[in-house]
Structure formats: C-alpha cells, structure tokens
From TrEMBL:
Binds 1 pyridoxal phosphate per subunit. GO terms for biological process: L-serine biosynthetic process; pyridoxine biosynthetic process. Pyridoxal 5'-phosphate binds at residues 104, 154, 174, 197, 239-240. This is Phosphoserine aminotransferase. Pathway: Cofactor biosynthesis; pyridoxine 5'-phosphate biosynthesis; pyridoxine 5'-phosphate from D-erythrose 4-phosphate: step 3/5; Amino-acid biosynthesis; L-serine biosynthesis; L-serine from 3-phospho-D-glycerate: step 2/3. It is an enzyme of class 2 (transferase). The lineage of its organism: Bacteria, Pseudomonadati, Planctomycetota, Planctomycetia, Pirellulales.
Length: 361
C-alpha cells in the first residue's frame, strides 16, 4: 500500500485509519451478507441495521434527547443554509437573526435573505472575522424565528467556546467543522447541522439534529425534499439515502466510542493538539502571525500567515515535501491553515510543530 501522509485538508479531510481499514476489508462483501454495502437495497434488513446502528451511535455519543430527531440528508451544509429558513422562517412574519462570524455565516445569511426577514445580530467583517462577539454585542430581535451561528468558522479559524444566550428562541448551529469534536448540550439547540466531510465521514451525507416541534410548521406545498418532516417521518429514507456515507459515518462513531473513549476525551486531545501549534505561533516573535485573537481561536482550523506571500509559498512547498500536505489557507484568504480534526493523529500535529520550529530557524 502507498504510504499515507499527514493530511491537513479542511475537508474532505483525513479519516480515521481504522475506519478506512475496516471499510477496505469489508468493501467487496460485508461479513454475513456477501454483498458490498453499496449493493444493498436501503429497504433490506442488512442496510436497515447499518442505518439504525449509525443513528444509535450518534444519539449515544452526543447524548441526543428524544425531543430531537436525527436526519441523514444530502446537499451538504449549503442546502441547510436554505432548508432552515424555508422550514422555520418562510411564510411567517418573524425575523431570523444571524451572527456572522466568517465566510460560512455570511453565506448562510445570503440564502436566508431569499426566504424571509433577516437581521444581522452581529458582523465581524470590520476586524476581518478574527474574533467573536461578546454577549452584550448581540443585537437580537425580540421575537426571532431562530438565531443562527456558525460554531466553527472553517476559513477564518474562530470557534465559539460556548453558545450565546438566546432565551427561548431556537438556536441553530452550523457545526460542519467541529461536529463531534467535543460534547454539546443538544437540548440547548433547535437545530445542529453538519456536513460529514470534516469530522464525521465522507462528503455526501449531512447530519441534521432537529427539535421535533420545529418540523411542524413548514407548508406541505414546498418541494418534498426540502421539508424536514418528510425525512423524519421516513427515518431518512424519504428518498434513497447516501448509504455508503452513512455506513462510514457509523464506523467513525464506533471509532469515537471504542477507540477514542467518547467526546470528552476527544475534546481534551483536540485542545492539546491545537495548543501545540498555537504555542509555536505565540513564541515565534511574530514570525508566524495567527489570524484569530487568542480567546476565540479554533481547535479545529489553525490559521496563520508568515511575513509575506513568498514565505507562505515556501513554507507550504517545504512542508509538502516532508509529507505535511494540504496546508494552504482557503483561496479567499491565503496563508496557512492546519485543519486538525478528530482523525488527525497527535503525531501529525507534532510533526507539523517540529517543522514550524525548523522552518523558522
Ligand atoms: N459550513 C461550514 C462551516 C463549512 O466549513 C462548510 C464547508 N467547508 C460548509 C458550511 C459547506 O458545506 P458543503 O460544501 O457540504 O455544502
């Protein structure tokens, strides 16, 4: 087998090696079934068991209360940017509040504007999205349909340490890039959504955790796929689900439970990994310039620049030659971005830290 590099891609991102190995072993024929998971009817017993197992593991890992449903959808998080206002805002005279902390929050807002009234409760544009709002900075509407946040901004590398206070208004959180990276109190949320391709599996499946009462109001005249209720009533089989992706998501959950010991341990490891890199940045006398202010730094996407574009390029090329790959910042911001999701081993981060120290010298 070709050697694996340390892959710092922001997504699709590194997968846990034991998951890839199990999928490889069982790819052609699942034990006791004799067919690939890709060849199974989604209505048949073997796939239904895989589907139920993936869902049960998610419920257990995130301690999801039975006030909430778990849906496996397609269309990525970007379809959720539209489905959320279509289901919760469209046809009401309420306002949806958006806390815009980076590129993804901005894109979520752009879609919501098409569906109903919106209010920008905070916008980090003036400081180039390098920090998050304090509670007192938020201009929340009195009777909002929901408040939308992006818990981790993948491009800028800022992450909420705790959710903002929004009273009785449903809190909607895009957790695409920090899903299952730490425990969350699901009962505080109306909706949590995440495309899988960072922390949960391959691209093609999107997880939506939604409070059941929020599914009631959407009009049945909407295109069927866009109505959460249809997916919930059909246990995410309203249409053919992305079966292979859900299978892999289930394996990732099993790895988080059995190998990693659950989300509290995962969180500790993620914090320690991030600290290794932030320490180098902070002790570099300005050689490495971190983007986010220290208190709002992401544990998932460590973003920084060197003195100029040429030095950034040299850093990326030399890192790549040492097997530290896909470290380029998002095309809209440049610089360096080390995405260190759950599946990035500590050794990968240590190797990057050592490279950063050597490169500075
Ligand atoms: N939100 C966040 C925070 C993301 O990082 C991404 C993908 N990078 C998206 C939304 C969009 O996800 P998708 O491409 O699956 O629609």
């Amino acid at each position: 087998m070709p050697e694996r590099v340390f892959n710092f891609s922001a997504g699709p991102a590194v997968m846990p090696l034991p998951v890839l190995e199990e999928a490889q072993r069982d790819l052609v024929a699942l034990p006791g079934v004799g067919s690939s998971v890709m060849e199974l009817s989604h209505r048949g017993k073997p796939y239904m068991a895989i589907h139920a197992d993936a869902k049960a593991r998610l419920v257990s890992l995130l301690n999801i209360p039975d006030t909430h449903d778990v849906l496996f959808l397609q269309g990525g998080s970007r379809l959720q940017f539209s489905m959320i206002p279509i289901n919760l805002l469209k046809g009401t005279d309420k306002t949806a509040d958006y806390i815009v902390t980076g590129s993804w929050g901005k894109k979520a807002l752009e879609e919501a504007v098409k569906e109903g009234k919106t209010n920008v409760a905070w916008d980090g544009k003036s400081t180039n999205f390098n920090c998050l709002p304090k509670q007192g900075d938020l201009k929340l509407s009195s009777d909002a349909a929901y408040v939308h946040i992006t818990s981790n901004e993948t491009i800028q590398g800022v992450q909420f340490a705790a959710e903002p206070e929004v009273g009785n208004v449903p809190l909607v959180s895009d957790q695409s890039s920090d899903f299952m990276s730490r425990p969350v109190d699901v009962s505080k949320y109306g909706i949590i959504y995440a495309c899988a391709q960072k922390n949960a599996g391959p691209a093609g499946v999107t997880v939506v955790i939604i409070r059941k009462d929020l599914m009631e109001q959407a009009s049945s005249d909407l295109p069927g796929y866009l109505v959460y209720r249809n997916h919930a009533e059909a246990d995410s089989m309203w249409n053919t689900p992305p079966t292979f992706g859900i299978y892999l998501l289930g394996l990732v959950c099993k790895w988080l439970q059995d190998d990693m010991g659950g989300l509290e341990k995962v969180q500790k490891q993620n914090e320690a990994k991030a600290q290794l890199l932030y320490d180098v940045i902070d002790q570099s006398n300005g050689f490495y310039i971190g983007h986010a202010v220290p208190e709002d730094r992401s544990k998932m996407n460590v973003t920084f620049k060197l003195g100029d574009d040429e030095l950034d390029k040299r850093f990326l090329a030399e890192a790549n030659a040492e097997g530290l790959t896909q470290l380029g910042g998002h095309r809209s911001v440049g610089g360096v971005r080390a995405s260190i999701y759950n599946a990035m081993p500590v050794e990968g981060v240590e190797k990057l830290r050592d490279f950063m120290l050597k490169f500075k010298k």
